[in-house]
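input
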Amino acid sequence: MNFKLAIPFLLLLLVSFILTVPHNFLSFGGFTPFYTLIIIYYWFLFFPKTLPVLSIFIIGIFQDVMFGFPLGLNALFLVMYWLIVGYYKRFLFNKPFNVIWIGFVLSLLYVVLLLSFILCQFFSYSLPQLLPLFFGWYFSCLLYPVMHHVFDVIVNKCKINQLNA
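output
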């Protein structure tokens, strides 16, 4: 297997490990951006062969175990997000950055709203308990351009292109 194709999966694993550490440097005042979804969005949008659905599912199960969530919950949402990005990538590919960013903002908002609905319906969450999700969405939207640039640098340094990824 080509190491370059494993970069997104390894990034997802690394972020998942770091997020399990209490008071990690990836959180902002107790609110954590959706790093996993940022990684999935960028890499699946531009290099779909680097993130097959099985790898997304494995990361989701891994996160469920690491964070103590009901087994399959993160896997379900990560695969759903993967499907959403897959559906919209034909509209977003080769578009200006602003359009790609808006696509991220809207797709992430959709998933956060869906997750909020499920948490309220099945786990009896109330609005104050959902505020971290919306702050996470907000910080993710602000952070996406920076991470997009970092991923572009990785792509250029590793010489990854759409033909082999």
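quick obs: Residues 42 and 151 are 8 Å apart (CA to CA).
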